[in-house]
DNA sequence: ATAGATGCAAACATTTTGCGCCGAG
DNA sequence: CTCGGCGCAAAATGTTTGCATCTAT
């Protein structure tokens, strides 16, 4: 089974190695937002010979090809998620007690952001919205 | 002249040392978003004996007392700005060509964010919005 | 065949920490 | 006086890189 990210790599004409295929698979299957070290651990459960350096290099290439997105939630490390362009643009709510990340989509924000950038004389390329909250009744 | 941040330290009953006073002054006067190293350099122009470790420790205390805010614009280092609660909540537009940071305020987003958090079962504590854009006509 | 990808270990950059001394309250 | 803050240097953490080797195309 070819992972979704591997298909995106093909579109960008990336040379596909065993390592990249495994890393693509791991990130495609992730339901959370793993950091480089976590990706490395999951990759190593599939193939013990893949190095952390390769994970970093591959992540970096995926990111510059917009195949994955980096998020910085303030815990010191960069975290990543697949960037499926046909999926709606979503954002993150971070539970400040548990660190849990909840994804959400909001139409109104999608509309607003372009207007704001335009008003400032910019074309919007990307954006990031993160909410930090505490669970009600806990 | 007592800096604005120093006044906030007093409210939180922080022990005020020469070092903290100078660091408070530097961050209060910053019109940009300096990282720890940059704060350290500016601090040293006023007092050569203040160490980088103290800058980090002080920043950390300021941050946990909500006196300053950390921002991560994706350049690998944490950047900081004063968090004047009586100032309107603002956000950042980052020029992806120059790295320039433009601050802006948007009323509609202020309204939206609380509704979204509530809908997800959370009380909003903080949030962060960053737009990344290219200047029009350049 | 060959450009580019990999593994390893060393280098880097940023941030944190242990310890003995010092200074604010 | 005393507790916490300080400077220094060392360590920890996350990430990048030089080099010799290997591999997808």
Give a topology summary:
Two copies of one chain form a homodimer.
Chain A: H1 4-11, H2 18-29, H3 36-46, H4 52-64, E1 68-71, E2 79-82, E3 91-95, E4 101-104, H5 107-119, E5 122-135
Parallel strand pairs in A: 3-5
Antiparallel strand pairs in A: 1-2, 3-4
Helix pairs in contact in A: 2-3, 3-4
Chain A binds a DNA duplex (25 and 25 nucleotides) through residues 15-20, 35-37, 49-54, 56-58, 60, 76-78.
What does this structure look like?
2 copies of one chain form a homodimer. The first copy, chain A, has about 140 residues and is an alpha+beta fold. The first copy, chain A, has 5 helices and 5 strands. Chain A has helices spanning about 5-10, 20-30, 35-45, 50-65, 105-120; strands at about 70, 80, 90-95, 100-105, 120-135. A 3-stranded mixed β-sheet of chain A has the order 4-3-5. In chain A, strands 1-2 form a two-stranded antiparallel ribbon. The radius of gyration of chain A is 17 Å and the shape is globular. The mean pLDDT of chain A is about 90. The interface of A and B includes residues 93, 129, 130 and 132 of A. Chain A binds a DNA duplex (25 and 25 nucleotides) through helix 2 and helix 4.
């Amino acid at each position: 089974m070819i992972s979704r990210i591997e298909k995106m790599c093909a579109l960008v004409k990336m040379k596909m190695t065993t390592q990249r295929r495994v890393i693509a698979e791991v990130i495609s299957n992730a339901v959370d937002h793993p950091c480089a070290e976590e990706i490395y651990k999951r990759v190593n459960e599939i193939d013990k010979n893949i190095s952390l350096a390769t994970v970093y290099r591959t992540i970096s290439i995926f990111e510059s090809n917009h195949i994955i997105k980096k998020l910085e939630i303030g815990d010191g490390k960069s975290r990543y998620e697949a960037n499926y362009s046909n999926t709606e643009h979503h954002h993150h709510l971070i539970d400040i007690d548990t660190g849990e990340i909840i994804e959400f989509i909001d139409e109104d924000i999608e509309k607003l952001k372009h207007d704001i950038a335009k008003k400032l004389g910019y074309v919007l390329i990307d954006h990031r919205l993160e909410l930090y909250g505490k669970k009600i009744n806990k």
